[in-house]
Amino acid sequence: MATKQEFVDFVIDQMEKAGEIKARKMFGEYGIYADGKFFGVICDNKLFIKPTNAGREFIGNVVEAPPYEGAKPSFLIEDKLEDREWLSELVRVTVKELPMPKPKKKKK
After folding, report:
1. DSSP string of 39-76?
2. Which CATH number is associated with domain 5-97?
3. Core vs surface per residue 23-54: b (16+ CB within 10 A) or e
4. For 86, left (φ over 0), alpha (ψ -120 to 50), or beta?
5. What is the mean pLDDT of residues 16-36?
6. Three-state SS for 100?
7. Distance of alpha carbon 94 from alpha carbon 77, whole angstroms
8. Can you give the pLDDT at residue 80?
9. If pLDDT is split at 50, 70 and 90, which confidence band does 3 have?
10. The model scores a pTM over 0.85
11. Fewer beta carbons within 10 angstroms: which end of the chain, N or C?
12. CA 61, CA 4: separation in Å to the nearest integer?
C-alpha cells in the first residue's frame, strides 16, 4: 500500500518545531529530512525513525520494525503521531546524534 500525500503532510506538520522538515519521494515512498539530515522514512502510511541512543532513551518502550522488506529495523512511531511536542523533540534528539550528510561529489 502506497503512502498517501495527506499522511505525509500531516506528519511533516506535526514535526514543524524540529527545524526545516522536508519529505522526498523515494522508491514510491518518502524519505524525511530535518535541516538537511536524513532521519526517517514514511512507508505504508507509517512513520519510521532511524534508531539512535538518544531516540531510544527518549521513547522508552521502543517498537522496532523494518520499513520495507530487507531494511534494517527502525523505530516505528504510531501512538504519538498526534503529540506535536513529543514528536518534534524526538526528531530533535535523533537528528542531533546523526552525522552531517557527506558532500556530494561533482559530476565531471
Report:
1. EEEEETTEEEE---HHHHHHHSS--EE-SSTTPPPEEE
2. 3.30.1460.30
3. beeeeebbbbbbeebebbbbbeebbbbbbbee
4. alpha
5. 91
6. coil
7. 13
8. 92
9. confident
10. yes
11. C
12. 28
At 51, which amino acid appears?
P
Which residue has 514535526 as its cell numbers?
A: 15
Cα angle 68, 46, 54; round to 5: 90
How many whole angstroms separate alpha carbon 31 and alpha carbon 41? 4
Q: Which residues, in sequence order, are CB contacts of 105 under 8 Å at separation 6+?
A: none
Length of the chain: 108
Q: Which three cell numbers stand for residue 56?
A: 531510544
Q: Where are the domains of the chain?
A: 5-97
Residue showing cell 503512502? 3
